[in-house]
Amino acid sequence: MKVPVLNMAGKEVSTTELPADIFEAKINVGLMHQYVVMQNANARLGLHKAKRRGEINRSKAKWYRQKGTGRARHGNRAAPIFVGGGRAHGPIPHKYTLDMPREMRRAAIRSALSALARDGQIVVVDEISLAEPKTKLMAGMIRSVVGDSSALVLLPEGNETVERTIRNLATTTYIRASYMNVRDLLKYDRVIIPLKSLDVIKSILSRQKAAQE
After folding, report:
1. What is the spatial distance between Cα 99 and Cα 155, in angstroms, rounded to a whole number?
2. In 3-state terms, what secondary structure has residue 108?
3. What does the alpha-carbon distance between residue 122 and residue 190 come to, in Å, rounded to a whole number?
4. Where are the domains of the chain?
5. 201: phi > 0 → left, psi -120 to 50 → alpha, else beta; which?
6. The domain over range 2-44+97-212 is classified in CATH as 3.60.21.10
7. Which of 127, 136, 172, 184 has the fewest CB atoms within 10 Å, measured from its CB?
8. Is the pLDDT reported for residue 207 higher than 80?
9. pTM higher than 0.85
């Protein structure tokens, strides 16, 4: 699949070939859904906690006498049926983490990239560089490349100047190409990929690399 390569002014300067095994793979919606479920589950801290009756600091003395009150016999004010008592079967801290085999994760990302390429949501640029961290410059570049659409920028490596400017934009964010995931890829209208980031994607998702491993 050939796509145009734009410069930071939004002008086409060349074309590049997107690898078919990555950007024209079979789109597996179920696999992408499983990946997002795993990602959301792994983001949960699992720190929720409610006190049960054994953890409530209330008097252990019998609340009222056993007989003669007309009420049910009871001796513990920390019981769940009373206001201020413990919670029956309340939540306790535990892990929600899920796992997927590495090749399934990579196949899910290939599916996401293929879906984006099919719908024309991938924008390839020659490079993203700024002489100084000015949000106005970055906003102008994003507008030239994708218009008013929300965008995810895949950076080939850490770049403090570029990252600082993108962080100030409301509808644009960035991640490193080596950290790309299905949830972020499908969250935005456009995915901006510099040529160096495309090389990183090839090195991670290439079928030939997977065969060597």
Report:
1. 26
2. helix
3. 6
4. 2-44+97-212, 46-95
5. alpha
6. no
7. 136
8. no
9. no
